[in-house]
Amino acid sequence: MIFKIILLLITLTILSFLIYLLYTEIPSIHEADILSGFIQEEIPEELLNVQTLQFYQNMRFNHIPITYFMAPECSQQRLSNMNLATSMLEEKTSILFRQINSESNADVKVGCDERRYKEEGVFIAGHGGPSLIINATPWSVIKKGVIILFTESCDEIPNIELHEMLHVLGFDHSPNPKNIMYNISSCDQKITNDIIDELNRLYSQEPLADLHLKNVSAVKQGRYLNIRFGIFNRGLLEADNVEVSLYADGVLFKTYDIEEGIDIGAGRYLNVDNLRLPKLSIEEIKLVADPKNYINEINEDDNTVILRQVE
Ligand SMILES: [Ca+2]
Ligand SMILES: [Ca+2]
Ligand SMILES: [Zn+2]
To answer: How far is the centre of ligand 1, averaged over its atoms, from the C-alpha of 297 (Å)?
Structure first.
């Protein structure tokens, strides 16, 4: 008799365990709970809606020094003018320049013959300007620039070299005839304070990557989660070995590793179905970009999104 009762108890235990297992493991017997969360758009106001003097908002190189190469046909006068122009900019700003002999490595290529660098194509401005830009928000990163010098500068000021180098740094023409960026050059033009202030504003930001999460949504059905999210880089540098970790009520349950890295202005969407949660009942799902903080970022406070059930 006792034996039969024990057997019955064991059978019942196994049965209820199986029912519990069925209950937790079969998503379709549960209602689908939609989870959603608030995403911070934390681009500071002073970076958006800039009354810009530039072709685009917040154009800059993402490293210092900015290197330049002088083509062999450029005269000694041209070279010393360019050196003077760059040291004038260095004096008034935090930017540094360096002349280098490697044409392919130089950020800015300077030619003194109209036919030189024709195929490179100067972006927007006439004889100097960025030739390669990553036009992202909030930063537009200048990757390469080209200058062709063929008008002579004044004796007082290397106005042509300054004008073209400022085009490379992203500056558009000015309506002020006394401004070095006026579209017709004259010898009484100056590097005006608005240009200096703009350069100092742009280059006061340490060049770093900046990850943030985008379009995060999830559906929880029983113990399983279908989740979709974007991880993007809106900083000034590429981000390598990007990780995104997922937590259920604070318990880490999944980490994605984007090994190939994320370029400036670029991102990835991940769409994952049937992720098994550590337990059946969950209050919140948290996503964290760069959870171990391997990557130095412009903003470290916009890397988390918390998802909760929609009421
Ligand atoms: Ca960030
Ligand atoms: Ca970080
Ligand atoms: Zn111009």
So the answer is: 6
